[in-house]
Amino acid sequence: MADRPTLPQPPAGGTRTVLVIGGGAAGSAVTILLRRAGVAVDLIEATPDWNATTGSGITLQGNALRVLRELGVWERVRASGFAFGSLGVTAPDGTVLFVAEDIRTGGEDLPATLGMQRPQLQRILIDAVRASGATVRLGTTVDTLEQDADGVSVHFSDGAEGRYDLVVAADGLNSATRSAIGVTDRPEPTGMAIWRVAAPRPEGVTRTDLAYGGPAYIAGYCPTSENTIYAYVVEANRDRASIDPAMYADEMRRLAQGYGGLWPEITKHIDDPAGVNYTWFDRHLVEGPWHRGRVVLVGDAAHCCPPTLAQGAAMSLEDASVLVELLTTRDDWDDQLLTDYRARRLPRVRMVVDASVQLGRWLLDGERDADVPGLIGRTMTALKELP
Fold first, then answer.
1. How far apart (Å, rounded) are the C-alpha atoms in residues 250 and 361?
2. Which of 14, 34, 273, 301 sees the fewest Cβ atoms within 10 Å?
3. DSSP string of 62-87?
4. Pairing of the two strands 161-164 and 218-223
C-alpha cells in the first residue's frame, strides 16, 4: 500500500498556519476554534460587508446551539434571539391542529429551538472572529492554489500571496474552491423554492407554526426576537428569470394572502421587494473525499439540504467543531486525519440531507399518508448524540 501523503509539520515550537476561505457560519467557527488552540489563521471573505446585512431569519436547533456555546457566543445568541420548545401545525385558515414538543438535540440545558435574525447571528460571529486575533481580509478571493510537498501557496485577488499548512474551504454552496481542487459534485434543485421576509412579531407568536396546503405547500413563521419574526412560503420552484425582483413583495404577498390566523397581520408588512428573498431548495452531498491534498471542504461547500428540518447551519457548525477537534488533538495533520473527518461526518450529514429532501418530496408527490412525524422524530432523536 502506498504511503499516505503527510501535511507539512511546523518546526519544533513553530505555529501551524491555516487559510479559511469564507466567513459564514462554518468558516467563522473554524477560525474561532483554531485561534483558541494557537493556530495562525487568515480568513478571507468575498463580500466586502461580510454578509452582515443580508438575510431574514434563521431557525437554530439545539445541536447548533451546542456548537455556538462551544464558540463562546451562546450568551449573546440567547440574548439576541427567541428561544422556544414547540412546533404548531395549523390548517390554512389558521386553525391550530396540534402542537408538538420539540426534541432538545443540544441537551436538556439548551433550548430545543431558537430563532434569530440572520444578520444578527452573523454580526455575533464576526465579533468573535475579530476578537480571536485572526487576520481578516474582506472583498478578497483566491486566484490560484498550488500544492507541493511542503504546503499550499495561494495567490489572492488583491495581489497578495500566502503559504499555508492547510486550506479550509468554507465558501458555500457554489464553492469555487471545490471546483478548483477537482471535486465535481454539484448542487441539484429539489423542485421547491422558498420566499422569506422579516416582519414585526404579532402578539402571541411564541413558536414556529406551519400551515400545510393552501396556495403553497407550506406557510410558516418563526419568532426571531421579542419584536421580530421571519415568515416564509414554500412553493414549487419557478424559473428565476421569469420573476422580476421588483415584484418579489407582490409575489410573496399573493401567496401569503391565502392563509388565515396571524397571516393577515404578517402579510401587510410584505411591502418592500428588497426585503423579500427567493431561493430554490437544493440537495448537495459530496460523495467522494472531502479533501484534495491539503485543501478540505466544510459546511455548504461539502453538503446542503432544504430547510425542512432547519438543520443546514447546524450541520455546518458541527463540521467545524469536528474538524478542529481532530486538528487540535492529533500531532499529524495528514491524509488520514482528513479522511477520518469525512468518515465521522458523512453518516450524520447523509441522514439529515436525505430526511430533509424526503419531507419535501412527500409534499411534491402529494403523499397524504407519509410518516412525517416519525421521520422527523427519528432524525432529531439521532441528532441528540454528539457529532
1. 27
2. 14
3. HHHHHHHHHHT-HHHHHHHSEEE-EE
4. unpaired
pLDDT of residue 11: 43
CB atoms within 10 A of CB 102: 19
Q: Which residue shows C-alpha cell 439540504?
A: 305
Instruction: Give first-to-last CA distance, the chain, whole Å.
Output: 31
In Å, how far from its chain's centre is CA 363? 23
Check residue 79 and give its pLDDT: 98
Distances (CA, A) of 253 to 90, 221, 259, 264: 19, 14, 10, 10
Cell of 55: 438575510
> What are the pLDDT digits (tens) for 113-134?
999 999 999 999 999 999 999 9
At which residue does the C-alpha cell 410518516 appear? 371
pLDDT number for residue 149 = 77
Which residues are registered as beta bridge partners of 228? 200
pTM: 0.95
Within the chain, what is the greatest distance between any pair of CA atoms?
Answer: 68
Instruction: Extract long-range pairs of 145-152: CB within 8 Å, 24+ residues apart.
Output: 145/177, 145/180, 145/181, 145/295, 147/293, 147/294, 147/295, 149/8, 150/8, 151/7, 151/8, 151/294, 152/19, 152/293, 152/294, 152/295
Nearest alpha-carbon partner for 345 in 387, 297, 380: 387
Task: Identify whether the C-beta of residue 100 lies closer than 8 Å to the C-beta of residue 86.
Answer: yes
Cell of 337: 486525519
b vs e for 236-245, b when ≥16 Cβ sit within 10 Å of the residue's Cβ? ebeeeeeeee
Instruction: Tell me which DSSP letter residue 2 carries.
Output: P
Among the listed residues 209, 51, 170, 43, the one whose alpha carbon sits nearest the alpha carbon of residue 117: 51
Mapped onto helix, strand or coil, the DSSP state of residue 300 is: helix
Q: Got the DSSP string for 217-251?
A: SEEEEEE-SSSEEEEEEEEE---GGGS-GGGHHHH
**Cβ count near 119 (within 10 Å):** 18
| Helical (H) or strand (E) element with 163 | strand 161-164
DSSP 8-state symbol, 81:
S
Residues of the chain with pLDDT under 50: 1-13
Contact 37, 328 (CB under 8 A): yes
Three cell numbers written together for 298 = 466544510
Q: How far apart are CA 172 and CA 107, in angstroms?
A: 28
What phi and psi, each to the nearest 5 degrees, are found at residue 321?
-65, -45
Q: Which amino acid is at 346?
A: L
